[in-house]
Amino acid sequence: MEAICQLSAFISRCEDTLKNLCTQTFALFAENIINLSKIQLHYIINHIGEMFTIVVLLELLISSSSLTRNWRNYCKRLKTLQQNAETVDLPDDKFVAVLGAIDNITAKVMNDDIVLNSLNSLLGLRKTLIDRNCSMIADQFSHYLRLAIASLDKLVQDKPNVSSMNKCIKINALFVLNSHLFGNNDKKNFKALIELNTKAHSVPIVGTADD
Question: Which of 72, 92, 144, 166 is paired with 53 by a 20 to 30 Å CA distance?
């Protein structure tokens, strides 16, 4: 139970950090009063991509394990004890508080919707802060993706390793984030990303050529 609470707290911390990063970035485009040429936005976008990738990987790890199934069984068993409170060495108010915490964790962590909830939260934030100047920041995200895909295309062929694969995951996650927040479905970036994914997941085989 303690580990599950820590996991829930970590996910909340990741989401809060991601939201803070996006809030600061969106604020730059809220009014046309800042000279964006003096701001290195690629560093900020990179960090946003890294945080969102953590959220994506957390959901993937949780959903691909037996954690959710075991958690639901645990919740059912615990709630049956509510009918026999005397068997639980807890005052009624504390037991109710535990059940409330369990419901919160279930809703937040165990429904395979961590990424979707995070995306919708950021979309609401974007609409609140930069509804009119959306195209400006969308162009910045698309430009970052274009350069990152071109750089990774060469890297995954010359030095395929865990680090380059992690970068590929981040670029895919950032592409999804960009599309969801700004409706920006750049066909050239999408095609280049598909080609990158094909190369990144290919395995070179040596010695199979016919003699």
Answer: 72
Q: At what angle do helices 92-109 and 67-80 cross, to 10 degrees?
A: 160
pLDDT string in tens for the chain (211-residue length): 788 989 999 999 999 999 999 998 888 887 665 666 777 888 999 999 999 999 999 999 999 999 999 999 988 888 887 766 666 677 778 878 888 889 999 998 998 899 999 999 999 999 888 876 688 888 899 999 999 999 888 877 766 677 888 888 999 999 999 999 998 788 999 999 999 888 876 655 555 444 4
Residues 6+ apart with CB under 8 A from 56: 115, 169, 173
Residues 6+ apart with CB under 8 A from 167: 148, 152, 155
Beta-carbon contacts of 7 under 8 Å, excluding residues fewer than 6 positions away, are 109
Burial label for 130, CB within 10 Å (0-12, 13-18, 19+), is buried
- Residue 103: other Cβ atoms inside 10 A: 12
Domain boundaries, the chain: 2-200
List for the chain the helix, strand, coil content (%; round to 5): 80, 0, 20
Alpha carbon distance 127, 25 (integer Å): 13
